[in-house]
Amino acid sequence: MLRALYTAATGMYAQQLNVDVIAHNLSNVNTTGYRRSRVEFRDLAYDIIRPEVAGGPPAGYQVGHGVVALSTPKSYRQGNFEQTERDLDLAIEGRGFFQVRLPDGTTGYTRDGSFQLSANGRIVTQEGNELIIRGNATIPADAERITIDRDGTVMVLTGASSTPTQLGTIELAFFRNPAGLESRGGNVMVATVASGQPTTASPGSRGAGVVLQGYLERSNVQVLEEMVGLITAQRAYELNSKVVSASDEMMGITNNVRRG
User: Fold this and answer.
1) Which residues have CB under 8 Å from 243's CB, separation 6+?
2) What does the pLDDT look like over 14-30, one tens digit per residue?
3) Domain ranges of the chain
4) What predicted TM-score, i.e. pTM, was given to this entire model?
C-alpha cells in the first residue's frame, strides 16, 4: 500500500507537468512562429519480486514504481500563414530557421519573422536581436522599398536609382534533431549537443524552405487538440488521486485491526 501511494504520487506529478505544458501551448496560440510542446513519459524501475525461472510460470512477478516525465520536445509541423504585406514580415515555408545574433554574441534560431529596422539600419527582431545576413546587412537611410525574394536575396530601391540594389542574402539554418534545441524565450532557441550543429543554406536549396515576404507564420498550436489533451490529463490526475485515497483507506483499515 505504501508503494501504491508513492506510485500514484508520481502519476499526479507527471500529469501536473503535462497540464503546465498544455497551458503554455494555449497561452502561445497567437504567438508568431511558436512551436507546441508535448510531454513524453517513461515508466520507472521495477521490483523483481519473483523472477522468471526455467520450468516455472511463463512470466515473473514485477511491480513498477510509477512514471516520470522524460522530455518536452517541440512539434515542427508547419503553422498557417497570415498575409500582412509588410516588407519586413517574413515567413519560412518548409524547413529551417532564421539566424539572429544574441546579445552575448552567440547565434539564436527562430521561426518568428516579424522583423523591423533598428536606428542604424539593421534588420532586427522585436527583441532587438539582429538578423544575420550574408553580405551587406545595413539598409540605406534613403531606401524606399525593401524586397526579399524566395531565395533570401535582400534588395532595396532608393530614391537615387530606379533599379533595385542587392545587399545580401538571408541564409536559413536547419538541424538533424530540431527537437533538441533549447528554448530561451522571446521565440528564440539555441543549439545543444542533442540538436547537433546547424547546416546553413540559401532558401530553396539543400532541403531548406523558402522565404515568403509579407507573411507571418502563426503558431502551430491546435486549440481543440490541446483541450482534448487537457481533459485527458485532468482525468489521469483524478484517477491517481483516487489511488492515493484508496491506499490511505486500506492503511487505515490495517491500523484499526484488533486482535481477537
Assistant:
1) 4, 7, 8, 11
2) 999 999 999 999 999 99
3) 2-75+221-255, 81-217
4) 0.86
